[in-house]
Amino acid sequence: MDVKKSALFSVALLSLFDSQAAAQEPARPNVLLIYADDLGYGDVECYGAQGVRTPNIDTLRARGVRFANAYATASTSTPSRYSLLTGVYAWRRDGTDVAAGNAAMIIKPEIPTVADVFKSAGYRTAAFGKWHLGLGAVTGEQDWNGRISPSPLDLGFDEHYIMAATADRVPCVFIENGLVSGYDATAPIEVSYKANFEGEPTGKDNPDLLYNLKSSHGHNMSIVNGIGRIGYMKGGGSALWKDENIADSITTRAVDFIRSNADEPFFIYFAANDVHVPRFPHERFRGASSMGLRGDAIAQFDWSVGQLIAALRECGILENTLIILTSDNGPVTDDGYADAADELLGAHKPAGTLRGGKYSAFEGGARVPFIVSWPAAVPCGGECNSLVSQVDFLPTMAALVGVDAPADSLIDGRNNLATWLGDENSSREYVITQASNHTLSLRTKTWKYIEPKGGPAMVPWGPRIETGYSLEPQLYDMRVGEEKNVADSLPAVVDYMKQLLQAEKDRIFE
Ligand code: NG6
Ligand code: CA
Asked: Which one of 69, 131, 149, 327 is most buried, counting C-beta atoms within 10 A?
């Protein structure tokens, strides 16, 4: 072989080697986590939704894997988000329940987060949308008119454009990199969760000012944009959000981020406000579903997903972006506003065939849609029945980008990359979920055990949801569902599940 030929041969060999390596181990992908709020197991078409179309989410599913047994770690927001970002079950940590809008930052800067992991691997990182994990060092003492610190900037996120808590909690302004976005110096912001500010109207005293949405329970403190909120605020002026523009604002920010970072690997935590209350989607989504505002908010969420996919495609990076779409907890219809979500459901079942919903220990509380799309490595149109928990997000992403997971994140989190990429033959052995009163449940492939703990059978403050709380141990055969408690006839299984859960609770960490 002459020199030229031999050089060509080596090039061919090299490129063959390269393409084989590429087939086994695709280039470091961008990661886009799309985290919906209160989106139930039955709320999107590829999970059986009726009455609302979700073509963009279905596109993701067609380009990826749909998981049937994936779980948030809790049936409310703050604890689920805490676990997702840190790898630690929130019930191990005090102060991780549904946070007020003026709560101090719950994840302390020294705790490693998934954003730190991506950053250490050289990724650009950003958080958009609902935060709900507190901001600042001391509850109630943030300076909303100056720099708010610590913030996600101290948790590994290079950038953020977030809502401090939920859309139904004050302050109703976006925080952009530690400052109120579009700050209006003519209207200084004050926030209190204790008392109203002199002369400010409230939903309770001035219901006539609730011109956009009336409350059905609670949500009767400060009024912003004709909608009653939880907590009191004053000021904000032109920085106050309009609920109908929230999806547009956060989607636009995320799309801009994709465009300006298309040349380097990035991680986006896209935490949608939809479909949390107050549901007040933009006019262009009104009537998109047959279910009124809640269904229209699902359509709006699907639109956001479509915009993100389109931006990735336009930048030529869709194929090498790992997209995970899931939800922070299960669904609720009436969660405090008179938006007719119950009345207009028709044949739609927000939790699908699951029992219970948001807040609940039953499956509807924490089993959520979970779609993973990455055509370079995941079978298109796949289906996976393995058990998946969001608590594994951090170690799983660490494995993906080739860095060691910090010890703290391995308290509960595990590297389950194979499963997350759709491998039916690997699975978590069990997952633990937390109801809103801290009742814990343990689910294995076959069984679900709900620990005995007192509490009302129905959520007591308004939403019509079964809690699943009982002083008796509950055991369900998950091949059938949660209709029949079989604990009495299978004491050995109950014992086994109880011990497994107890061992988890008793674990001691250095
Ligand atoms: C409840 C709110 C509910 C919702 C929930 C948190 C009332 C009456 N209800 O206290 O509307 O905000 O907290 O939801 O105030 S979560 O999805 O963020 O966990
Ligand atoms: Ca939620």
From this structure: 327
Residue 27 confidence (pLDDT): 65
Q: Which of 305, 59, 335, 106 is nearest to 218 (CA)?
A: 335
- Ligand 1 atom with the smallest distance to the CA of 329 is 17
Identify the helix (H) or strand (E) that includes residue 500. Answer: helix 491-506
Centre of ligand 1 to C-alpha 322, Å, is 31
Domain boundaries in the chain? 26-182+235-420, 431-506
DSSP 8-state code for residue 110: T
Collapse the DSSP code of 321 into the 3-class scheme (helix H, G, I; strand E, B; otherwise coil) and give the result.
Answer: strand
* Ligand 2 centroid from CA 333, angstroms: 12
How many Å lie between the centroid of ligand 2 and the Cα of residue 396?
Answer: 23
Locate 349 and state its tokens: 């079942």
pLDDT per residue over 65-96, tens digit each?
A: 999 999 999 999 999 999 999 999 999 999 99
Tens digits of per-residue pLDDT, 432-481?
Answer: 999 999 999 999 999 999 999 999 999 999 999 999 999 999 999 999 99
| Shortest-distance atom of ligand 1 to CA 462 | 8
Cα 60 to Cα 401: distance, rounded to the nearest angstrom: 22
The Å distance, Cα 23 to ligand 1 centre, comes to 45
Q: Which pLDDT score is estimated for 9? A: 31
Cα 87 to the chain's mean position, in Å?
14
H/E stretch holding 298 reads: helix 292-314
Q: Which residues line ligand 1 (CB under 6 A)?
A: 37-38, 76-77, 98, 132, 166, 168, 217-219, 230, 276-277, 329, 335-336, 461-462
26-182+235-420, superfamily in CATH? Alkaline Phosphatase, subunit A (3.40.720.10)
Distance CA 462, CA 460 (A): 6
List helix spans (H) across 391-439.
Answer: 393-401, 417-420
- Contact present, 409 and 398 (Cβ < 8 Å): yes
Fold of 431-506: Arylsulfatase, C-terminal domain (3.30.1120)
Give exposure, 59-87, as e/b (b: 16+ Cβ within 10 Å): bbbebbbbbebbbbbbbbbbbbbbbbbbb
Sign, Cα dihedral of 236, 242, 245, 246: positive
Q: Whose CA is nearest to atom 10 of ligand 1?
A: 98
Q: Is the separation of the CB atoms in 115 and 267 below 8 Å?
A: yes
Q: Where are the beta strands (DSSP E) in 12-63?
A: 30-36
